[in-house]
Specification:
Blueprint: H1 6-26, H2 29-32, E1 37-39, E2 45-47, H3 60-75, E3 79-84, E4 91-96, E5 108-109, H4 114-120, E6 125-132, E7 146-155, E8 158-166, H5 173-205, H6 215-222, E9 230-237, H7 240-247, H8 249-266, E10 272-275, E11 280-286, H9 290-306, E12 309-311, E13 314-316, E14 320-327, H10 337-350, E15 356-358
Helix pairs in contact: 1-5, 3-5, 7-8
């Protein structure tokens, strides 16, 4: 794992969880004093008056959700929390308040938008009622994310996020800014360590170039009970060396990203796409059999063949070869899925490329 040592991350997580528990429960103690608390099956603490605290295993997403809810209570508007991992990196909505559209989670915030400027410039911004809060230069009163107030989230000397109120505040803009800034300061000491831990975990389990899972993350997923009935597709870009040799390694990186983006859009929720080598990828399909594995592999092969990547103003066609294996039929042990799918992949290479091959036999 890159970044902070594991023991330091553990200390940071402990501090973040302790801080979160104190923040959430301390402010509600008087309200809940006359009402017994009930622990629900989910692990959530709910008082008889309906107030809800953090689950006992609170992490970044839980802390961000509490901040969004508190911000919404303060300013009377739907609120969101925006975070980024590195300077210049993408800014993403990671949590929204109760009553705000949950589909906004994962939405990319444009750097030149009012919300983006709160982060890149480190100063509060107020978007007028006809301006989109998270997109740049858009003025259209019909857009649902128009207007808003955004204040920076500072983690030490860095600004890595913002608290965003969506819509035109009923209070004076200066009062809304002041209320959000107070919350941002209070939450920063807990969100900062939790954010650092989330980044470290993500980097340890993600391929840096493509954003897909890495081999370690894939192996961890396949170690679950779901692997007992599952299919694995190993796929490799055909003649990838030719791309690097004729167009350069920058073009090769773009080709790998292009394939990764296609994989992300073509798979079911719960499937795992990973980059496991230079130009080799894997797609794990929990719950799938060999027939479904072959169907998915053929769909991916056809998709990549039909979608050339663009470089230097020109389209460059690509194809892939695929090997498919499945457990428990024909491979009794899921531990052998990767080796047998890999063997099928190299048969596909030997027999002409741009094709899908099933594993040849049983593995113990």
């Amino acid at each position: 794992m890159t970044g902070a040592p594991l023991w330091l991350l553990g200390v940071a997580m402990g501090a973040a969880l302790g801080w979160a528990a104190g923040l959430v429960y301390g402010s509600r103690r008087r309200r809940a004093a006359a009402a017994p608390a009930v622990r629900h099956a989910s692990g959530e603490i709910r008082a008889a008056d309906g107030t809800t605290g953090l689950p006992s295993d609170a992490k970044l997403d839980h802390l961000a959700r509490v901040l969004a809810d508190r911000a919404s209570e303060q300013v009377g508007l739907p609120c969101a929390v925006v975070l980024r991992d590195v300077d210049g990196g993408p800014m993403t909505i990671v949590a929204v308040s109760d009553g705000c559209d949950p589909r906004l989670i994962g939405y990319l915030v444009q750097p030149d938008s009012p919300a983006g400027r709160a982060i890149t410039e480190g100063t509060p911004t107020v978007a007028p009622a006809d301006e989109a809060a998270v997109e740049a230069g858009l003025r259209d009163r019909r857009r649902p994310l128009r207007g808003g107030v955004a204040v920076p989230l500072r983690f030490g000397s860095r600004v890595d996020g913002a608290v965003l109120a969506l819509g035109e505040p009923t209070m004076a803009p200066n009062a809304a800014v002041a209320a959000l800034e107070t919350l941002a300061r209070r939450f920063a000491s807990g969100l900062g360590p939790a954010h650092a831990i989330a980044i470290a975990e993500r980097r340890a389990n993600t391929d840096e170039l493509t954003g897909l899972a890495n081999r370690r993350s894939l192996n961890r997923a396949m170690a679950t009970g779901d692997a007992a009935r599952s299919a694995l597709v190993m796929l490799d870009l055909d003649f990838f060396k030719r791309i690097n040799d004729t167009l350069g390694h920058g073009a090769g990186d773009l080709a790998l990203k292009h394939v990764a983006d296609l994989l992300k859009t073509a798979l079911r929720a719960g499937d795992v796409a990973a980059r496991v080598g230079g130009e080799e990828f894997a797609v794990w399909l929990p719950g799938a059999d060999m027939a479904l594995g072959l169907e998915v592999a053929e769909r991916l092969r056809a998709l990549i063949e039909a979608k050339p990547f663009r470089f230097a103003g020109a389209e460059h066609p690509m194809t892939i070869s695929c090997g498919v294996s499945a457990a428990p039929v024909p491979i009794p042990s899921p531990d052998n899925l990767m080796a047998t799918a890999d063997a099928a992949l190299y048969r596909a290479k030997r027999e002409g490329r741009n094709r899908v091959m099933a594993t040849a036999g049983k593995g113990g």
